[in-house]
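Posting for a labmate who doesn't have an account.
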Amino acid sequence: MEFSAKQIAEYLGGTVEGNPEAKVSTFAKIEEGVPGAISFLANPHYAHYLYTTESSIVLVNKDFQLEQEVKATLVRVDNAYECIARLLTLYQSTMQKRKGVHALAFVAESAKLGEDVYVGPFAYVGDGVEIGRGTQIYPSAVVEEGATIGEDCILYPHATVYYGCKLGNRVTLHSGAVIGADGFGFAPAADGYEKIPQIGIVTIEDDVEIGANTCVDRSTMGTTLIHRGVKLDNLVQVAHNCEVGSHTVMSAQVGVAGSTKIGEWCMFGGQVGIAGHAVIGDRVLSGAQAGIAGSIRKGNVTIQGSPAIDAKNFMRSSVVFKYLPEMQNELNRLKKEVEALKSKL
C-alpha cells in the first residue's frame, strides 16, 4: 500500500513541508533511506543524515531547525519517535494474521478458542484453557491447564504459560518467556532444603509485552501481578508475589526479588537488582546496574549505583572515587607529618 505525505500528516496531526503528494510504501532508517521509504529523525546525533538521505519522506519534530535544504519531504509532528511507532503499528495491523488450528497442534477437547485464533504446529493447549478472539499461539508454545489468554495476544515459539495463569488482552510473550514457573521458595531443614509449594498464579493485565527468556514466577499464594502497559525486556526475572505497577519498563537482566511492590511509570536500566520485600514508589528512574537494597517509597527520584543513591550524588561520588588511591597516599603522608610535628613539641 502507498501513502502520501498529505495522508500521513493528516493521520498524525502534522504538517507537510515539501511535496504533499510524495508517496511511500515502506520504512527505512534515515541513514539507509531509499526512494519510496519513510524515515524519522528523533535523535539529534543523526541530524546530518537528513541532508543526504534518499528517503522520500522524513518525520521530524515541529521545533527542528534546518541548517540547509533537504531533498526529502518533511512531515513535522509533535513527537517523531512516537509517530513512527504509530505508523509501524498501523502497518503491522494491515498484515494478514494466521488463523486456524494446525493439524500437528494439540488442543484439549475442553479448551475454548475464540474466533480467528491461530494454534501452530506442536503447540499445546491444555484442558480448561480459554483463549480469546484473534490470539496467535505460535509453534511449540505451551498453554497449560486452566490458563486464560485474552484477545489479540501473541505467544511466540516456545513461550510457556503455566497452569491457572491469566493473561489479559493484547499481551505479547516473546520466545522462551515463562509465565508461572514456581517461585524460589525453600525452607532450610536438617538435611537440606524443603520446597515450599507455590500454589498461586500469575496475572498479567492488558497491553503487556514480555521479552525473550524472561520469567515471571507464580506466587506462593495469591498472585504475582503485572499491571497494564508494563514492558519487560529480554532476560528479566520477576520473582514470586511481586507486583509491578502500570507502564513500568525494565531493560535486560533486571532482577526483582520476591514480594517486591513497584509503582507506576518506573524505569529500570539493564542489570538493576531489587531486593526482596522492597516498596518502590511511582516514577522511580534507575540507572543501569543499580543495586536497590531497600524501599524507595517517596517516588519521583532518579537513582544510580550500588547501593543505589541519588543519581547526582552518585555522579559526584564517582568523580572522587577514581582519585581515592592518591587521596589515601596524601592522607598517609599528612599523618606522618603530623606525627613528626608532635614528636618535636
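Reply:
Got it, the C-alpha cells are right above this. The mean pLDDT is 95.
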